[in-house]
């Protein structure tokens, strides 16, 4: 096999096997194994198995095995019957068919059918390996198409001219698309050229051969669409004219019948109308008499009711006007009294307010005069009192400083006493091993020492605070004295200026006096703070 087929490109030998060969297909190379090939295809079908399967009640299995015939397989002639015994040697020999022979017979039968018909292939593509609905695996589908050679076939068909028509067949099928001027009697080639050139503008989509016309993929479908559109338009035109003729006949027939029916109906309606007119005229006369009598009775009743109602309304209106006149007279009397009382109250209130305003103005001028006199009389005395207060504060601070010094001396003596106690504590600690009884005394001495040291630290802090407070108070006192002297000089100058202004002008300037008083009060408040 290797020697005879090695010259072919589609045949090759694998590297690691001596019993296999490779065949190159559209998608990829396929390996075939020769070892045990004849043995595997020499299998025979057991007679008992065939008989049992042929007697199956499943319709599919029964149809598969009945195709051989009852004589060859030894099955009963009808379903549901008993199995016949195996009889002849020839029948047994017929049962000894191998799987390879059955496959060969099936393949020969298939080829005979294909050669006798025009086959159309349908490729079945599995959408996914999980066999689930509504799930499409693009990669798997492309692999199957490539393995089946569909993509290669499509590429080859698209690259060439898969559609082929003879000129006569093309003219017979597509002559509905051409005009009368495109048809050349007896010359199908020229006629087809005229039709194709007008329908397909791209010359690369078709080619003219000696006996046939070749088209690329998709062009025949395009022309079929044009042909179906043209046939549809023609059919619509035919239907339109036929329907027009049918409906015209129907319309004329209906029009004649309608005229007859209208004539009879109009006569009947005219007679009925005359009868209705007579009846209406009689009914109108009866209604006029009845309505006149009813209206007369109604008028008499309404007239009586209206006279009674007018009498009641006029009496009620007269009583209402009389009451209104009495209320108006009483209201005028009340308004007169109230307005007089209000005017008297308004006069008394105005008089009271005038008196209050006068007293307020007089009090204002009196206060101004009093403040002026107080400023002139108490300015120097107040400064003296302030100075006296500061001197008393300094004296008290000096006394506190002296007391602090004395307390510091006492604290120093306590510190010395604490040092002595610490010495004694050391001695007691040395003799602690000899006498445990003195331990309590040592603890007491230690506590006393801690308290003395705490008091000493507290007194020291107080002394430091007193010293710093004294220094700060002395500085504040010095600054206050300097500022005080400056303010006194300024006040004296302002007082002299104000006296000169008062003497020069007979009228007192109220705004200036109020400004000076406000400044003086602010200065006094600052000194008090």
Describe what you observe in this structure.
There is one protein chain. The protein has 14 helices and six strands. It is mainly alpha-helical and 529 residues long. Helix 10 (167-174) packs across helix 11, helix 12 (219-430) packs across helix 13 (439-504) and helix 12 packs across helix 14 (510-528). The two termini are 132 Å apart.
Rough outline: flat
Q: How much helicity do the residues have?
A: over 70%
As a percent range, the share of strand residues is under 5%
The N- and C-terminal alpha carbons lie at a distance of 132 Å
The secondary-structure element order is HEEEHHHHHHHHEHHEEHHH
Keywords:
3-stranded antiparallel beta sheet, 529 residues, 6 strands, mainly alpha, 4% strand
Give the secondary structure arrangement, pairings included:
Layout: H1 2-5, E1 11-12, E2 20-24, E3 29-33, H2 37-40, H3 47-54, H4 59-66, H5 70-73, H6 89-95, H7 99-116, H8 138-148, H9 150-159, E4 163-166, H10 167-174, H11 188-199, E5 206-208, E6 212-215, H12 219-430, H13 439-504, H14 510-528
Antiparallel strand pairs: 1-2, 2-3, 4-6, 5-6
Brief write-up:
The chain is mainly α and 529 residues long. 74% of the residues lie in helices and 4% in strands. The strands form two sheets. The protein has a three-stranded antiparallel sheet, with no helix packed on it.
């Amino acid at each position: 096999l290797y020697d005879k087929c090695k010259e072919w490109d589609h045949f090759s030998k694998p590297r690691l096997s001596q019993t296999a060969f490779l065949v190159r297909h559209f998608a990829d190379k396929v390996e075939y194994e020769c070892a045990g090939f004849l043995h595997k295809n020499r299998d025979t079908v057991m007679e008992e198995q065939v008989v049992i399967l042929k007697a199956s009640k499943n319709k599919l299995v029964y149809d598969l095995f009945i195709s051989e015939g009852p004589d060859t397989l030894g099955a009963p002639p009808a379903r549901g019957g008993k199995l016949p015994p195996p009889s002849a040697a020839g029948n047994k020999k017929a049962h000894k068919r191998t799987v390879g022979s059955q496959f060969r017979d099936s393949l020969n039968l298939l080829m005979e059918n294909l050669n006798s018909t025009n086959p159309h292939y349908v490729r079945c593509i599995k959408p996914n390996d999980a066999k689930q609905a509504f799930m499409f695996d693009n990669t798997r589908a492309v692999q199957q198409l490539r393995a089946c050679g569909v993509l290669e076939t499509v590429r080859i068909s698209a690259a060439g001219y898969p559609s082929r028509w003879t000129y006569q067949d093309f003219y017979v099928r597509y002559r509905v698309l051409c005009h009368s001027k495109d048809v050349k009697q007896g010359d199908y080639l020229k006629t087809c050229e005229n039709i194709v050139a007008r329908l397909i503008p791209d010359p690369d989509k078709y080619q003219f051969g000696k006996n046939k016309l070749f088209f690329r993929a998709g062009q025949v479908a395009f022309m079929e669409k044009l042909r179906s559109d043209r046939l549809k338009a023609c059919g619509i035109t035919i239907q339109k004219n036929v329907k027009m003729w049918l409906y015209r006949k129907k319309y004329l027939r209906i029009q004649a019948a309608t005229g007859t029916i209208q004539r009879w109906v109009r006569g009947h309606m005219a007679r009925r109308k005359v009868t209705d007119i007579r009846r209406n005229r009689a009914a109108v006369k009866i209604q006029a008499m009845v309505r006149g009598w009813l209206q007369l009775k109604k008028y008499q009743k309404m007239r009586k009711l209206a006279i009674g109602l007018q009498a009641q309304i006029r009496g009620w209106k007269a009583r209402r006007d009389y009451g209104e006149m009495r209320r108006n007279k009483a209201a005028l009397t009340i308004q007169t009294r109230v307005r007089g009382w209000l005017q008297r109250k308004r006069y008394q209130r105005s008089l009271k307010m005038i008196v209050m305003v006068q007293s307020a103005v007089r009090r204002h001028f009196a206060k101004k005069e009093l403040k002026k006199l107080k400023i002139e009389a108490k300015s120097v005395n107040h400064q003296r009192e302030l100075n006296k207060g500061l001197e008393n504060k300094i004296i008290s601070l000096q006394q506190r400083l002296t007391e602090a010094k004395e307390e510091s001396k006492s604290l120093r003596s306590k510190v010395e006493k604490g040092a002595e106690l610490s010495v004694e504590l050391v001695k007691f600690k040395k003799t602690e091993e000899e006498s445990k009884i003195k331990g309590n005394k040592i603890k007491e001495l230690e506590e006393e020492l801690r308290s003395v040291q705490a008091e000493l630290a507290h007194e020291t802090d107080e002394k430091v605070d007193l010293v710093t407070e004294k220094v700060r108070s002395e500085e504040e006192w010095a600054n206050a004295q300097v500022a005080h002297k400056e303010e006194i000089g300024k006040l004296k100058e302002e007082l002299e200026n104000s006296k000169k202004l008062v003497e020069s002008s007979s009228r007192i300037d109220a705004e200036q006096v109020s400004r000076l008083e406000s400044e003086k009060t602010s200065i006094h408040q600052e000194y008090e703070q």
